[in-house]
Write a structure and sequence with these properties.
The protein is built from ten helices and 14 strands. With 329 residues, the chain is of the alpha/beta class. It has two domains: 136 residues, 3-Layer(aba) Sandwich (Rossmann fold); 181 residues, Dihydrodipicolinate Reductase, domain 2, CATH 3.30.360. Bound molecules: 3-amino-D-alanine. The site of 3-amino-D-alanine has 9 residues, from helix 5. Keywords: Amino-acid biosynthesis, Diaminopimelate biosynthesis, Lysine biosynthesis, Methionine biosynthesis, NADP, Oxidoreductase, Threonine biosynthesis.
Length: 329
Amino acid sequence: MKIAVVGATGLVGTVMLKVLEERNFPLTELIPVASEKSVGKLIKFKGKEYPIVSIDTAIALAPEIAIFSAGGTTSLEAAPRFAEVGTTVIDNSSAWRMDPTKKLVVPEVNAHVLTKEDKIIANPNCSTIQMVVALQPLHEKYKIKRVVVSTYQSVTGTGVKAVDQLMNERKGIDGPKAYPYEIDLNVLPHIDVFQDNGYTKEEMKMVKETNKIMGDDSIRVTATTVRIPVMGGHSESVNVEFENDFDLAEVRSILENAPGIIVVDDVANLKYPMPKDAHEKDEVFVGRLRRDESHDKALNMWIVADNLRKGAATNTVQIAEYLVENKLV
Ligand code: 2RA
């Protein structure tokens, strides 16, 4: 199995390589791909060194799978060219997510929709992924009517420039800015660009992608997405209104037994999910489970995950694992 990692030198690409290595992905040849300025540089993987190649070289090698984290423009141009030579592309950009001909997949929720014919598969937005992992098992039991979510997102979701901005500000050093305002000691209720309806693109991603992944347009979602000066993971305060009555102990047990979730919910001992603990972990952490006392069929919870792992690299690799295990490539 030849696997290409497109965008291998970026923040997510680097984590993709780490996750492929850690999970012992069954590959025989790694093809790291990056922009022209990195071509020829060596990438270390499982004790061996692999030269970075260009997109054209990688396409000529016709890998079985290409995992992409190279931005929307590169993906729109290169993913169809890989698909033409028989490669299955799993793309981490937003380019294909809402294309009705492409599947948007979180393995714990909807891997079953994948077929051999899917040559370009979309990986959802980080903040959507961690939320739907927790929503799906509850939806199956109680049927979700409405979700109100506010996010607290790590600067790593923006990229290296944002991490540098935060660290430089912390040290009092001037430097390039990823955000229109200071991020250290600040909170920006603004992720991605503003739309005509007053919401940001990130907020609308959470609405539309949730419906698509869960395969249910009747679930109403409203989101406020916020950048905070944190690394390690995204956090979310989520209010869920169900159609049916629910029992809090049963909710806890459903989540404890759901795939990919770790419940951390013991407030008597001050145990709740935090980005510092989720950092470098592949699971979604859920806690602060409590009834919404203003509504008898609503629940409040707090969801945290490493946005570069489950929110990006790990989810992509899990899709690749599913394709291999089910002989879909
Ligand atoms: C963010 N959603 O955190 C992005 C990353 N995909 O900004």
